[in-house]
Design brief:
The chain is α+β, with helices and mostly antiparallel strands and 324 residues long. The protein has helices spanning 8-24, 41-49, 63-67, 113-131, 148-154, 203-207, 224-230, 252-256, 264-268, 284-289, 292-297, 302-305, 309-323; strands at 29-34, 78-85, 101-104, 137-140, 159-160, 166-167, 176-183, 213-214, 217-218, 246-248, 281-283. The radius of gyration is 20 Å and the shape is globular. It binds iron/sulfur cluster (2 copies). One iron/sulfur cluster (SF4) binds next to helix 6.
Length: 324
């Protein structure tokens, strides 16, 4: 059964109820946008054509769905966008006894964010399915080809910085993981904020250890996040001394950004206990000795398990050699 279009006043009221539910569910940011194609599909196509996705061949699949959400959910009208803040940006301590450790990017230090977001989005989607049985509601948390940052900007969650990440206002910065509900239900969009959050700043570009960033473009094939997690096999020769102290992922561009500093406002941002660090770093020699059984039985989150044993060992050995 197809859904019945809500009248304007009812649409506003349902939208307000959904936003209230999202706030009660503890999302740091939430908003709604129309399910329109993204504004610059050609930029994504050009980025792919230049090979910046490296071995992430899945990005080159389902491009039409990625740029047009109505191809992901037929007749999609709206996208409910949410973000969790996983860090206040407090700098990591760098003690002498940490020299033989490699750091984990902050998003991966606690529980798997896919689960943390999904277990709060699914009940909201399910309540909407029961209330609007003729409509469809698809929850996406990195599990579907969707241009999540573009939609988050349209929904008013923040703006995109030169490092290509979403920057939330009010001290939230870019310590954000995103989720969506794509729906055929027509809701009222929330206002977006225009403007460039960067001005003449180039701190993220200057801080990137591998020169992966051009303004509003990241060459993923040069990015430590990609090279330590997604890339299989030996790294390119140029990368051998460039990973700084990152064992899994990299936060250098966010750490450098003035919007993501450990300010009083950032410290007041509610951060769910799910994201509290269980693994902030690992001892490099230990990782280099891991067996597959140990990797599986260490209690790593699914996010950390994404890197194969060979990748963990390769990353550890690169840092050991660099620190030797
Ligand atoms: S995550 Fe690290 S390597 Fe990647 S763009 Fe940011 S600073 Fe550069
Ligand atoms: S560091 Fe500066 S240039 Fe980079 S995203 Fe932040 S404000 Fe923009």
């Amino acid at each position: 059964m197809d859904g019945i279009a809500l009248k304007s006043a009812e649409r506003d009221s349902v939208t307000a109820e959904i936003l209230s539910q999202l706030a009660d569910a503890g999302f740091a940011l939430a908003g709604i946008c129309d399910a329109k194609p993204i504004d610059r599909p050609h930029a994504f196509a050009a980025w792919l054509a230049e090979g910046h996705h490296g071995q992430m061949h899945y990005l080159a699949k389902h491009v039409s769905k990625r740029v047009d959400p109505s191809q992901l959910v037929e007749d999609a009208k709206s996208i409910i966008c949410v973000a969790d803040c996983y860090s206040d940006g407090k700098p990591d301590e760098r003690r002498v006894d940490h020299e033989r450790h490699g750091r984990i990017a902050r998003y991966a230090r606690g529980r798997d964010y896919h689960r943390v977001l999904r277990e709060r989005l699914e009940p909201i989607a399910q309540s909407l399915r029961l209330r609007f049985p003729g409509e469809r509601f698809r929850v996406c948390v990195d599990t579907a080809p969707i241009a999540e940052r573009d939609h988050a900007v349209r929904a008013g969650l923040g703006r995109i910085g030169k490092h290509t990440l979403l920057i939330g206002d009010h001290g939230v910065g870019s310590w954000l993981v995103l989720g969506e509900i794509v729906t055929t239900l027509h809701l009222t969009p929330t206002p977006s904020r225009d403007g460039d959050p960067c001005g003449s700043c180039t701190r993220c570009i200057d801080a990137c250890p591998t020169q992966a960033i051009e303004p509003w473009k990241v060459k993923a094939e040069r990015c430590i996040s990609y090279l330590t997690i997604e890339h299989e096999g030996e790294p390119a020769e140029w990368f051998r001394n460039r990973a700084d102290d990152w064992l899994f992922g990299c936060d250098a561009c966010i750490e450098a950004c003035p919007h993501s500093q450990w300010t009083l406002r950032a410290r007041e941002t509610p951060i769910r206990s799910d994201y509290a660090a269980t693994h902030g770093s690992f001892e490099l020699d230990a990782v280099a000795r891991w067996t597959e059984e140990e990797r599986i039985n260490l209690g790593l989150s699914e996010v950390l398990l994404r890197a194969s044993l060979a990748s963990w060992k390769r990353n550890a050995e690169l840092l050991v050699r660099k620190q030797a």
